[in-house]
Amino acid sequence: MIFTTPKLIRFQHCDPAGIVFYPQYFHLLHEVQEDFLAHIGCPEHQLIGQGFGLPIVDLKTRFAGMCRHGERVEISLSLSRVGQASLGMHYEIAGPPDPSGKTARIRLIADAVVVFMRLESGKAVPIPDALRLVLLPYFQPDGTTPVAGAPAA
Fold it and tell me: How far apart are CA 21 and CA 34, in angstroms?
């Protein structure tokens, strides 16, 4: 499965030219991670309250197009890896379809590794079985998320 959520590109995300300022993409990606965790019944604030976290330890991003103020985009998240204590998260931000075909639908592709850790010690710990069970349906073994309008590789 793929988790997808709509997002509105707001003024706060943009530079003076009305284009998303690149660090704001990382805020959007984290929002999607929070939305995903809530969707699977494991809200991030509850994990933190129990003394656990999922910090990013690696992030690779490819900027494929611009997002502009007022656009409604779709952000998808799938899992490219489910390890003992880490997850590979694959994100894609897709803009609205462009009837002219001049603007790429996919605006950003990112791959992150997050580690399940105990906050007190800062050490990675195994992902609990109950959490692993609800994560596995989102595992995409090829590490790609099929999104309509994605450019061919």
Answer: 21
pLDDT in tens, 69-84: 999 999 999 999 999 9
DSSP code, position 2: -
Contact 69, 13 (CB under 8 A): yes
Answer for the pair 58, 114: CB distance below 8 angstroms, yes or no: no
Residue with tokens 């897709």: 94
Q: Record the pTM.
A: 0.86
The CATH superfamily assigned to 3-138 is: Hotdog Thioesterase (3.10.129.10)
CA angle at 144 for the pair 142 and 146, rounded to the nearest 5° = 125
| Sheet strand arrangement including 117-118 | 52-53, 117-118, 123-124
Q: What amino acid occupies position 74?
A: E
Kind of pairing, strands 3-8 and 72-82? antiparallel
